[in-house]
Amino acid sequence: MIRVRFLATAIAVLVSCTLGGPIAAQTASQTTSQTAAPIVTVPGMPPVIDPTNLYSEIGADRLSPAVRYDLPRVYVPNRRSNTVTVIDQATLAVVDTFRVGRNPQHVVPSWDLRTLWVANNAEGRTDGSLTPIDPLTGKPGAAIPVDDPYNVYFTPSGRRAIIVAEELRRLDFRYPQTMKLDYSIAVPKCGGVNHADFSIDGSYALFTCEFDGAVTKIDLVNRAVIGTLVLTPYYARPDVVAHLATFEKKPALVLNRPELGESVYAARGMPQDIRISPDGKLFFVADMLADGVHVVDGTSLRQVVQTWPIPDGGSPDMGNVSADGRYLWLSGRFDDVVYRIDTTSGAVDKIKVGREPHGLTVWPQPGRYSLGHTGNLR
Q1: I need a labelling partner for 329 at 20 to 30 A (CA). Which of 36, 91, 142, 225 fits?
Q2: How does the average pLDDT of the chain come out, rounded?
Q3: pLDDT tens-digit profile of 157-195?
Q4: What is residue 58's DSSP assignment?
Q5: How far is CA 299 from CA 23, 110, 205, 296, 302, in A?
Q6: How far is CA 169 from the centre of its chain?
Q7: In terms of Cα–Cα distance, which of 213, 215, 189 is closest to 204?
Q8: Which residues does 222 contact at the CB level (< 8 Å), separation at least 6?
Q9: This prediction's pTM
Q10: Could you report the per-residue pLDDT of 47-66, keeping only the tens digit for each?
Q11: How far is Cα 359 from Cα 339, in angstroms, rounded to an integer?
Q12: Would 378 be classed as within a structural domain?
């Protein structure tokens, strides 16, 4: 039995919410959208076609002409090998491996879908960089020096790239072609800032704070931090920290705390990836240590609505779904492999890659534009 990390379950939940519904459900959504109020987006952002489903344009039949001739590949950044492994989606063969900058974390599709950026954040050093890959050929170009690029996102208008400088607790907004710095937003209360998703109208984003067990809301229009929400109130208890010395020693769920008026985890949170619901009202936050998914109201940033525990826990890492929805690809971060999971049968194939594979990208993907990460398309 393979040992995959918890986020696999979270990704499966999000995929079912966004991509996996039957045709009848999609038709019903389109009918509903005819009467739903239109979404007023920020300037430059492509229109929301279906106000009830912001993922309406990323169905399996919605490949953009821009990616029509791109090679069907999986690009796997190997954090400790300082390489990218390239896998042929059809044959599962490793067709290329090339060196990139130090500590590659994620492979990120650009807003216009024409470049895949490898984020090399050079942990603890000052020689971070971004390596471009041409998806037509699968070959890398010359790296561009960039401070601490743990992850990369794009504003909904596509006018700026957002470099997530995790170690520096900063979001750097850069011009997407040259990566020249325009401005920055400091996030001092968001230790381990790493993953994000954007509101349906493009006016704000929620970033997860991995080391502070929280999420931070960023006003993209006024360029400011709106607030920070702690997801797991007991994350800093010394006795809990001792229990978390290894992933195998996780504390159990503490139920029925009347003094708090709710059930809580006696655990330090470690929120990872985040995705918005199709109607744009809720955000799903995968928490690696709480073994579940937090559900957060993004508009009010109010108290956590609900937490879904995953039975028996687990520990998956980054992944993506193939364009036709048939396979879920996941990096087996501590096993130096990539898993290809059949979304119908659950059958698993393993492909050996470099050391510590992380934020892989399955390409091409359907959609009009990319908001970043390993394939957050709309």
Answers
A1: 142
A2: 82
A3: 999 999 999 999 999 999 999 999 999 999 999 999 999
A4: G
A5: 30, 27, 10, 9, 8
A6: 18
A7: 215
A8: none
A9: 0.81
A10: 999 999 999 999 999 999 99
A11: 13
A12: no
